[in-house]
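Appendix C: a fully annotated inverse folding record. The material below is reproduced so that readers can follow the format used throughout the book. The structure is listed first as tokens, followed by the designed sequence.
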């Protein structure tokens, strides 16, 4: 990636030559990743005004915040539009005007919609990391997948476009990392790899990121009491400690670690000393080994932001990403974006409030799935939750529920949409172990939903689809069939 940045910097000196603009994209054409970044940055630089069209999740919000700040800094007027996803209904939020539309974290899979919306090649560029469905018009785009970068989210690519526009945008490295972590790019390898790792290095060099290489692979390292943090850990599942805060607490007390600071507040993992951390990790490792389990997933890289206030969710990448997701799920992506741009006043207070609300509704959903129970097919487990929960959180609930169920069977949750009585939303989740054995939910949902006149997409490990309500009865069988074929 260093070489990409160097090439990008060099090509900035040849502003205006824009040799790659309008380059025809065909299946076999392999323009370099850096050339694609450069070309998109060139199009932005040449624009009179820009409309950023982004997705409402953490990656989308971080992407938008990166691009909007970088574009404004160039002196180019920029406005933003957030959409839940790009579909015929939401395209009407994309203005028909003279601005350059920069689609980010979406667009690659919906190029036909851009075309139907009347956008020509000169009107739009795409920055995305989802599987592309090319259309008649060859939109200028940069997509990590075209260059083998499967662990790089849209915010990562947006960051490279931003640093291509101006070197000083390395200050936005934390946002690039938050987007990647929010999109689970660090999960499989317990850390960011490839170009995403170069963003971490930029932040470390700038002093905006503190990178811990072998940290505890748990959520809540900056905000939760450590025993609570450990008890929530389910990847790896720690015998006796996972789901048992009481035991986790006595486990820590037996290690002679003070759990509260002098004023009585619970200490968080981030403030444990190196020796304390070492003692906890080796204690857990012994627990895992005693139960014949691997310690591989006990460790993960973490990314802390030393400039943020201690004991807040802004302090590390995964908690920050959850805060942004909460804003998006409750239809307030702009509040998340304001936080990304540095608002620590009213926008931050609103974001915290949404995070609390978000957690309580997800807890309710997970409890509901546990109470109702899933229907098991040979290669799939599923449940229809009707209209009880907002469709924007069922995927998260599915992911958490799967960790408590049979991990070999991907979970599928169906739900109704408040604004579309004809459609059913489908969310699926599996885990890395099943992906490594050939399970690909993106493919499964794309095939099965196309058969019933719906549409699906996403990633191998997490995917979603919209299907007509009339097809909901038989849909699980169709997905099960594709999963069976993938397992063969
Ligand atoms: Mn994304």
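Designed amino acids, in order:
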């Amino acid at each position: 990636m260093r070489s990409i940045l160097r090439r990008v910097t060099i090509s900035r000196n040849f502003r205006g030559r824009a040799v790659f603009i309008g380059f025809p994209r065909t299946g076999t054409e392999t323009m370099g990743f850096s050339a694609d970044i450069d070309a998109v940055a060139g199009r932005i630089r040449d624009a009179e005004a820009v409309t950023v069209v982004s997705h409402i999740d953490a990656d989308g919000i971080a992407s938008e915040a990166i691009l909007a700040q970088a574009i404004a800094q160039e002196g180019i007027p920029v406005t933003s539009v957030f959409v839940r996803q790009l579909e015929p209904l939401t395209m009407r939020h994309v203005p028909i005007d003279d601005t350059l539309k920069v689609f980010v974290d979406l667009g690659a899979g919906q190029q036909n919609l851009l075309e139907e919306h009347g956008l020509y090649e000169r009107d739009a560029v795409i920055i995305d990391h989802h599987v592309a469905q090319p259309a008649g018009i060859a939109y200028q785009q940069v997509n990590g997948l075209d260059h083998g970068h499967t662990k790089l989210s849209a915010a990562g690519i947006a960051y490279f476009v931003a640093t291509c526009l101006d070197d000083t945008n390395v200050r936005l490295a934390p946002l690039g990392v938050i987007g990647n972590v929010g999109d689970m790019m660090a999960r499989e390898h317990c850390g960011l790899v490839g170009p995403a790792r170069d963003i971490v290095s930029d932040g470390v060099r700038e002093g905006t990121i503190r990178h811990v290489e072998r940290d505890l692979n748990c959520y809540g390292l900056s905000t939760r009491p450590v025993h609570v943090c450990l008890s929530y850990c389910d990847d790896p599942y720690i015998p006796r400690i996972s789901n048992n805060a009481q035991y986790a607490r006595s486990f820590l007390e037996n290690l002679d670690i003070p759990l509260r600071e002098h004023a009585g507040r619970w200490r968080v993992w981030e403030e444990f000393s190196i020796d304390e951390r070492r003692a906890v990790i080796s204690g857990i490792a012994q627990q895992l080994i005693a139960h014949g389990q691997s310690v591989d997933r006990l460790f993960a890289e973490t990314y802390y932001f030393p400039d943020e206030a201690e004991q807040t969710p802004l302090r590390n990448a995964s908690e920050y990403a959850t805060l942004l997701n909460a804003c998006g799920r409750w239809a307030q992506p702009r509040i998340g974006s304001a936080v990304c741009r540095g608002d620590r006043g009213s926008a931050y207070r609103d974001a915290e409030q949404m995070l609390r609300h978000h957690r309580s509704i997800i807890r309710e959903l997970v409890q509901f799935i546990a109470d109702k129970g899933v229907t098991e097919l040979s290669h799939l487990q599923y449940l229809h939750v009707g209209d009880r929960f907002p469709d924007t959180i069922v995927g998260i609930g599915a992911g958490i529920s799967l960790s408590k169920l049979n991990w070999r069977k991907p979970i599928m949750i169906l739900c109704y949409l408040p604004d579309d009585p004809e459609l059913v939303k489908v969310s699926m989740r599996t885990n890395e172990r099943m992906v490594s054995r050939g399970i690909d939910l993106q493919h499964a949902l794309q095939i099965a939903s196309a058969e019933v006149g719906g549409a699906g997409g996403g990633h191998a490990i997490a995917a979603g689809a919209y299907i007509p309500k009339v097809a909901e009865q038989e849909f699980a069988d169709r997905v099960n069939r594709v999963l069976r074929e993938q397992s063969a």
